[in-house]
Amino acid sequence: MIYEPEAETRPREQLRALQLDRLQSLIEYVKTRVPLYRDRLANVDPADIASLDDLRRLPFTRKDDLRDTYPFGMFAVPREEVVRIHASSGTTGKLTAVGYTAADIDLFARVNARSLAMAGGERGMTLHNAYGYGLFTGGLGLHYGGERMGMAVVPVSGGLTERQLMLITDFRPDVIACTPSYALTLAQAFRERDVAPEKISLRYAVLGAEPWTEAMRREIDAGLGVRSTNIFGLSEVIGPGVSCECVEERAGAHVNEDNFLPEIVDPNTGEPLSEGEEGVLVFTTLTKEALPLIRYWTGDITSLRSDPCACGRTLARMDRIKGRADDMLIIRGVNVYPTQVEAALLQLPELTPNYRIVISRSGTLDEADVEVEVSEEFLGDEELRARAEARLRESIGCSIGVRLSARGSVPRSEGGKLQRVLDRREL
Ligand code: AMP
Ligand code: ZN
Hints:
4-stranded antiparallel β-sheet; binds zinc ion; GMP Synthetase, Chain A, domain 3; binds adenosine monophosphate
């Protein structure tokens, strides 16, 4: 089902015309309302932007701009018009505050309703929402989206796994929303209690907020008996609902491009890259009122494609996020993203998706080990360990040591974003 068919299936030329129109109004809007943009765009006239290609003439906005003007310096409306404030902690540094007008909240609900529909959700279904409620945008984002769609939303929030299992068993939801790592925690908890996947009522899972792989998807789908899709978003742009995969193809997340204009740029030079090329994802918000952003540098690495999709949507698709530019590890000179380690490990069926990467330093070289849980029969299995190391070496191109550890030894997701990397270099 398509939630907003007209907006989601527009011919691409019409979409581009709409985007250009909205972009020109946006420039006028931010120049008159946001001091930072008044200064930075002093020499830019909306009329100078004659096509979407002219976007490249505009400067990037970065997380530091939000930090420097913390908390509300980039808001484009008076405080009385702000009806909600969320914040993102990020992995380092200060909070970033984001604001919404009533119209922004309406947009937030609609793009999440669209996403739930992309993921297989329908009016009348029950949504078990195990995303954290609070300053994090995930919980309330999916909550409003579910209600807007006409679903019965169970606002469980993250954590208290035992209670989650009980609610899923008793309320028999059709759809679950949470982080992929927490979906795995739930799947494992069901298995430990001998509940077979066919006995779990869930049919669809809308998972995001952290990077994950196809191998992880297979584990979750089998463990919960669902078809899971990848939802993406970030607080600065709106929260979840920036993009979501359709359940038909599950091959890239459809970006709600009528509201969030995506670009892929070279991480080093900032130059725009072509379709299919991998680089940093950048967004311009076309319709937001409280916190409009021009060319916001997400730091996330992915690529875009706009070929037709079986679901009928014309919205371009973004590939899975490989990682954030700042999560990239450099091990003996080789660039490594945690998702590459995950994909390589899960090629071996003896290994579980419970792993963590430990970075340490010997002399001046950074070293990485991965600690991965196995069932008891494989503990101390030297042949398996060597095979896992060889697999990592082949697919990543550098040596990463493998340690096989007992079930339960690696930290599990408690509902929030899971930290997969333990950095011991500072200790
Ligand atoms: P926050 O604003 O705190 O919710 O964090 C947003 C960030 O979470 C994004 O910039 C991504 O790095 C990450 N993220 C969100 N959704 C996904 C996803 N589906 N896959 C990979 N990373 C994601
Ligand atoms: Zn599709």
